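User:
Can I borrow your eye for a moment on a structure tokenisation matter? Would you put together a sequence-and-structure record for a protein of your own picking? Please set it down just below, with no commentary around it:
AI:
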Amino acid sequence: MTSRWKPTEVFLTLRGILSVFLIFVVFDLLLGVGLRKLYFSQQRGYTYRVTKSLDLVHPDLLIVGSSCAALDFDSRFMSQALGYSVYNVGIPSTSVVYHWAVIQSALARYTPKVILLNLDAQPLIFGFNGSGAPRELVPYYRSHPEIRAALTEFDAFAKIKQLSNLYTMNEQFPMALWRQKPRNDPEDSTGFTPSHGIWMDSMVSYSGDAKIPFD
């Protein structure tokens, strides 16, 4: 019986597969490095505040939390009232996993006098709902041991995914592009992002046992 594959054809097929793989690796490396540089050069906006929260701020009082913390705790007012330097690292739509990572990052670089952690009721009652740790932490995996701990706690493949430079910058490119122009927003200096308007919905009441995702 004659083989359908000749040695030359096998070689050409393998070379083609290898060429495509190498092109992908080079593309992933170059574009990923470019996006990382773009991401970490931001001077304003949501992702810039994440970087400040994890790397730059050293306040006496650190406010950590999600929407309630970010929108309700006025850093400047609290600083004047308490005589402490205050920074609000609260970011809407973040989970207790993100808050834990921010606190661990802060403790790794300095010792705050006070850490004010505001926890929303809903995630504690219904549990952490997600396929892995928050995506906000992904770009910091390689440089922060505490981030690696948070990511691997909920994603067994986190280390493997980090082999891709593009993965580490997933969903970051459009935001990083339009946020290149520096701007002195109030939240850039104090972390506080006031919410203006009138609450029209009814109050929500929760009850049940708290579900903490990890120790």
Q: What stands out?
A: The longest helix spans residues 7-40.
